[in-house]
Each structure stands twice: as structure tokens, then as C-alpha cells.
Target: ribose 1,5-bisphosphate phosphokinase
Amino acid sequence: MNIELSQDQVLSGEAKLFYLVGPSGSGKDSVINGLRDKLQANSSVLIAHRYITRCNDNSAENHIALSVPEFTQRKRSGLFAMDWQANGCNYAVGNEVNSWLSMGFSVLFNGSRQQIPLARELFAERLRVIALDVEPEILAERLRQRGREQEHDILARLRRSEHYQAQLPKYCWHLDNNRSLEKTVNSLLKYIEEQTTEYYLQ
Model:
């Protein structure tokens, strides 16, 4: 399944901001990379890279690394559409997101569950929150397999995940990622298509 927009189609309504959230280890990066592989060159959906104050490491996220002074300078200059702090780092998406939305492109990026109210404030009726769901046993195993944390850290993450998942607003769309990544990505594509195709003149 591919989402495409022919060159002669014209947008008849607002594009959407797809805000993907989920606990660490739930597979957000894998889902985003899988979506990126399926989108065509003339797709009406764009994936925004995050700006993060950490060096490019061996994680799966293709982000843009900034120093703290660089991040501060860009924030003060109004170059971010949204920014937040988590895990001792600064995160942001650039103003290109707002430019793309104004041009009629829908946008997806990796968000924070704690910042859903801010996303709601910034993107209003455009916002579509996608909550990635993973069973605790599977999440724990994935965290152990990646080998970044001690067992007590993993257990703490699981407790935080349970708390934040319970606090998700009712308007979230839940995406199961317990098993097949291919199935998860296809479900995401179908949801995006359902949310966006109604806005195009055929």
C-alpha cells in the first residue's frame, strides 16, 4: 500500500500532523523507517527529522545532532515548530513542519507522550496522535535485547510506560506493534490514507 499524490491533484483542506508516541523500546524508529521505505517520491506525506542535543549514536533514529548552544540559538531565533526536554536531552522539530503543512503536505514525527497537550495547543485540529502499543512482556524483552540498560532501569522504564500509557487521551489512535513490523507499518499506512485522502480533489 502506497500513499501517492499525482501532480495535478489539488488540496481541498488542511493537511494532518501525525504525532507518533510510545515507550522506549516500543519500536517507533523501526515503524518510522518502515513507513519511510514505503512512501513514494510523490507522496503527500513527509517525515520530519528531530533535532536532538546528543551525538549520532547506534540508535535507529536518523536525527540531526546539535550541541546545547546550537539548540539554544535556534530556539531563541524561533526556528523550531515544537521543542521539549526528556531523558536529559533537548528535542525539537523545525519550522519546516509548519511550512510543509501550509503547502498541503501531511507530516509525521516521533513525539513525546508527556508533550501531547503542547502538540494539541500548537497543531490544533490538524493533530492526530498515534499511540504505539506493546505488551509489557514484549517491551521488557526488547529493552533487554538492545542491551543499553541494567535490569532495574528496565523495570523502572516499564513502570513509567504503564503510567504514561494510562494517561493517554481518549482521542489517540492505538497502533499495535507486538508482532509483525510489516503488519504494523501497513496498518499505519492505511490509517494515514484514511485521514488524508478525503482532503484531495480527485
